[in-house]
């Protein structure tokens, strides 16, 4: 039996167990850096699989090691994120979240289940492989500064150091059974913008006696659109959006201050820094010119995700070998962000997408929505492919 046939057979035989794992994670979701029950469950599974591991990295993170023949010859890393989102679930399923206001609406439950499944598959291939597989269960992808940065700081990419790292993320726009990849720049950097405009409040019927921070904030939001539409180079993808305005006035009360919350995303570090300064200059000057004061706080978040060109090509070959050419999709640039980007700054990295959509089953909801779900069959694809690419990397390196 070939290596591929072994992996395909094992993935099929483990599907029911991995579905149970995913359902457990989905039922008991935990927020960033609070994944204690999640970590305990992962540890219990690794114990059962007799895979050595280290706990409490970056608070709740876990790193397992699968050692094959000549374990010091080379190491490949596989990463799954662990945290859920602060969202009330609306799915009517047996495994609906039991933690009020928390939901695995970004598929991290599937990511962990697939990595456990891949670990189990790989642990059965010790006579076929040489080297080491590092299993990274990472906390807090959803909340800055992100678990990846902390895990790297605590040595997750050392002892042993991987020659490459792969991350898998579900994509509900992609049909179950398919995977997607993009070489080079793939997902955007992300920064949080907090602007506070301070004026003089008062009665809405006496506007001549106030310095209206709502009006001034409106001018600032409109003017800041030129950062992308007029200052950015047309060939540099950028997004500047404001999603929250806190005024705390009412229909006849003009407040003292207004708080604006936004995000800036792009793919160029030099332009990123220039844009930050432009945002500050425009906001401060408009506020001053209209008689108010303004504070701009920009929290620099994740860098952009870069898929190593050579590693992405290798992934394409592996995916076609395992799934067939018709099940590999080329992806567009994504303005969403991922702290997997920190790994991609340190070593050759590949971040690919796993299709989980199934229209016949009504599984079509987008990520970060209260009705997000996956086609459970995609877990078989996910764990099998993850095991296959890890095995192929060890063989080809």
Structural class computed from helices and strand pairing = alpha/beta
Q: What distance lies between the first and last C-alpha atoms, to the nearest angstrom?
A: 23 Å
Percent of residues in helices: 25-40%
CATH architecture of the largest domain: 3-Layer(aba) Sandwich
How large a portion of the residues is in β-strands, by DSSP E? 25-35%
- In which order are the strands of the major sheet placed? 1-2-4-3-5-16-6-15
Q: Would you give the CATH topology of the largest domain?
A: Aminopeptidase
Per CATH, the class of the largest domain reads Alpha Beta
Q: Strand-and-helix sequence, N→C?
A: HHEEEHEHEEEEEHHEEEHEEHEHEH
Number of domains: 2
Strand tally, please?
16
Major sheet: 8 strands, mixed
Over the alpha carbons, how many angstroms does the gyration radius reach? 24 Å
Low-confidence stretches: none
Number of helices: 10
State mean pLDDT (0 to 100 scale): 97
Shape assignment:
elongated
CATH superfamily of the largest domain: Zn peptidases
């Amino acid at each position: 039996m070939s290596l591929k046939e072994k992996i395909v057979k094992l993935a099929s035989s483990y599907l029911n167990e991995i579905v149970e794992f995913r359902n457990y994670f989905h039922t008991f979701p935990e927020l960033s850096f609070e994944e204690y029950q999640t970590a305990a469950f992962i540890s219990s599974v690794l114990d059962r699989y007799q895979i050595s591991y280290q706990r409490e990295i970056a608070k709740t993170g876990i790193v397992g090691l699968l050692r094959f023949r000549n374990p010091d010859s080379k190491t490949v890393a596989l990463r799954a994120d662990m945290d859920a989102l602060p969202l009330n679930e609306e799915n009517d399923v047996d495994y609906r979240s039991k933690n009020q206001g928390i939901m695995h609406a970004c598929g991290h439950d599937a990511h962990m289940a697939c990595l456990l499944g891949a670990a189990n598959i790989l642990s059965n291939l010790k006579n076929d492989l040489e080297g080491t597989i590092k299993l990274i269960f990472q906390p807090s992808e959803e909340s800055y500064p992100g678990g990846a940065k902390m895990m790297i700081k605590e040595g997750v990419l050392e002892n042993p150091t991987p020659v490459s790292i792969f991350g898998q993320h579900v994509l509900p726009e992609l049909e179950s059974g398919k995977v997607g990849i993009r070489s080079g720049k793939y997902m955007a950097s992300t920064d949080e913008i907090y602007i506070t405009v301070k004026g003089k409040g008062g009665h809405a019927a006496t506007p001549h006696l106030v310095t209206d921070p709502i009006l001034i904030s409106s001018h600032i939001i409109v003017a800041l659109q030129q950062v992308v539409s007029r200052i950015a180079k047309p060939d540099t993808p950028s997004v500047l959006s404001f999603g929250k305005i806190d005024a705390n006035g009412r229909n006849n009360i003009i407040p003292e201050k207004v708080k604006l919350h936004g995000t800036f995303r792009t793919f160029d570090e030099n332009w990123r820094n220039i844009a930050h300064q432009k945002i500050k200059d425009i906001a401060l000057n408009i506020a001053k010119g209209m008689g108010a004061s303004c504070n701009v706080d920009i929290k620099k978040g994740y860098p952009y995700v870069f898929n190593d060109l050579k590693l992405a090509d290798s992934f394409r070959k592996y995916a076609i070998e395992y799934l067939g050419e018709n099940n590999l999709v080329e992806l567009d640039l994504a303005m969403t962000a991922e702290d997997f980007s920190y790994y991609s700054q340190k070593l050759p990295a590949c971040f690919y997408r796993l299709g989980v959509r199934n229209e016949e089953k009504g599984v079509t909801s987008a990520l970060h929505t209260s009705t997000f779900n996956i086609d459970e069959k995609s877990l078989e694809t996910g764990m099998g492919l993850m095991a296959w690419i890890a095995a192929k990397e060890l063989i080809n390196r």
